[in-house]
Amino acid sequence: MQFNPGQYKIRDERMKPFIDADEIWQYIADTSNPDKQQVRDVIAQSLNKERLSLRDTAILINADDPGLIEEIKQGARDLKNKVYGNRIVLFAPLYIGNKCTNDCKYCGFRTSNKYAVRRTLTDDDIVHEVEALEDNGQKRLILVYGEHPHYDADYIAHTVKKVYEVKKGNGEIRRVNINAAPLDIEGFKTVWEAGIGTYQVFQETYHPEAYKWYHLGGKKTDYNWRLTSLDRAQEAGVDDVGIGALFGLYDWRFEVLGLVRHTNHFEACYNIGPHTISFPRIKDAADLDIDPKWEVSDDDFARLVAILRLAVPYTGLILTARENPDLRKEVMQFGVSQIDGGTKIELGSYTETKNEDQNLNKEQFHIGDSRSLNDVIEELLEDGYLPSFCTACYRLGRTGEHFMEFSVPGFIKRYCTPNAILTLAEYLVDYARPETARKGWQVIDREIKDLNGFNRIDELRNRIERIKQGERDLYF
Ligand code: SAM
Ligand code: SF4
User: Fold this and answer.
1) What number of other Cβ atoms are within 10 A of residue 111's Cβ?
2) In this structure, are residues 364 and 98 in contact, taking their beta carbons and an 8 Å threshold?
């Protein structure tokens, strides 16, 4: 089916949405065919740590010349190296339940998929899954839920607490993030009190009419309820939120500006941007019904990540295992800050071995990177990255760490790199294969050498020794 813009009109005026589709298209129209100098000026502005406006971002979006696209990518690499260094934070998703009352045309869990195998993990299942994740070396999880009356705020809070309770050997989960349906203010308070990290809600598409076309039934049909969900989170005191767009539903250029507009809204209203931005790309799913016209090519995907890096330089960027290893490797250089590793998305699959390939009636979509956490870490080490499981800022109440990394001089040297080193050291001692451990210690040596100016190097070395002797959870 083709999506016909104009077929659906948003009539609900109760809540004033902050997205104006015409305004976004106008930015794109007004900046068409930018000259080289304009594009270079915008890149320079970003490298100068100035926040890009919607218009600046539209200039980058309209730079179609291959040479200019390369300059944008180089700008993103330079910004990443200048600001964030080599760290990549690792996490894993844990699907808790796939019952769903919505009918999203891109998702295998949609209510109209009668062949979907529905399952909700029991408390025992959760314990076993988390133990298996801990045995792999995971420290940070994102819990994922369909939208269903069973998965209300109390239930989500209950599962979060359950996850934190599980400790196996030296394993523990130190940060639990959430990807679930929008809640009301009371609901956000409830999950916040359970100790969540980030609450993610993806708008999927920022284009109101396209949104209507893709969401056929259930609560998720309400564009504004979803768009304003993280404002309710803020009202509830949840100041650690993640936004995202599902690329491939509508024009990628529009969605990039939608994400930037959403970020601007947060900054204007709450003085702090979203903690993270996600940019999942549509993957095959049972009953998938999307308009192929909006498919995002690998080249455009890499390009849009580089543009996002330059546009919102102090926001974490998350790249998931939806993408295959080669593309992840390529895109990571443009300033991605978090990736998942050792990912499994079928319910119960961290404990239950199966002999079949991915079965799309049991999973939300097809994943592109099913390597083990150890394999992902080994490749990161070979590519010069510093894998990190750090959760220090969140646990010390230093919220908005990406912002601080970006804006507080010396913050990365004082906290992020030493803490990344300490969490990697734990992983190498407890879980890594010998060859991975060898590469890991080399990277740690290199990173310590590069820490000139950090006045607690002796203390850092001392803590690494303490980890080797069996102590855990040491951080600055
Ligand atoms: N049910 C909750 C909701 O819709 O907000 C939780 C989200 S869902 C389990 C996680 C995200 O996966 C969705 O927000 C969507 O962006 C993404 N997703 C859904 N179908 C997908 C597909 N076929 N390929 C890639 N990502 C998909
Ligand atoms: Fe349900 Fe979320 Fe899938 Fe939509 S994307 S069908 S709300 S699980």
Assistant:
1) 20
2) yes
Q: What is the DSSP letter of 52?
A: P
Do residues 247 and 301 touch, judged by C-beta distance below 8 A?
A: yes
Question: 115 exposed, middle or buried (CB, 10 Å; 0-12, 13-18, 19+)?
Answer: exposed
Contacts for 213 with CB less than 8 Å, ≥ 6 apart: 3, 7, 8, 105
**Structural tokens at position 56:** 């600046």
How far, in Å, from the CA of 215 to the mean position of ligand 2?
9
Instruction: Please report which ligand is nearest the Cα atom of 296.
Output: 1
Does the structure show a pLDDT above 70 at 1? no
E strand or H helix that includes residue 178: strand 175-179
Question: Residue 113: CB within 6 Å of ligand 2?
Answer: no
**Opening angle at CA 215, ends 111 and 339, nearest 5:** 85
Say whether domain 81-395 belongs to CATH 3.20.20.70.
yes
Q: Which of 431, 381, 393 is nearest to 136 (CA)?
A: 431
Residue 243 · residue 230 · CB < 8 Å: yes
Q: For the residues 137-153, what does the mean pLDDT come to?
A: 98
Other Cβ atoms within 10 Å of 212 Cβ, number: 18
Which residue among 95, 98, 100 has the greatest number of ligand 2 atoms within 8 angstroms of its CB, and so is best to mutate?
100
Closest ligand 2 atom to residue 145 Cα is: 8
Report pTM: 0.94
Q: What is the distance in angstroms between the CA of the first residue and the CA of the last residue of the chain?
A: 54
Residue 370: name the closest of 346, 338, 395, 396 by CA: 346
Pairwise CA distance, residues 353 & 220, whole Å: 33
- The predicted-structure confidence for 200-209, as pLDDT tens digits, reads as follows 999 999 999 9
Q: Is the pLDDT of residue 6 over 70?
A: no
Compute, in angstroms, the gap from residue 126 CA to the centroid of ligand 1: 21
Measure the CA dihedral 133/137/142/147, to 10°: -10
Let me know: does 260 contact 23? Beta carbons within 8 Å. Answer: no
d(CA 311, CA 316): 12
Q: Are 102 and 215 spatial neighbours (Cβ–Cβ below 8 Å)?
A: yes
Which DSSP helix (H) or strand (E) runs through 441? helix 434-449
The pair of three-digit structure tokens given for residue 210, joined into one six-digit string: 């396209």
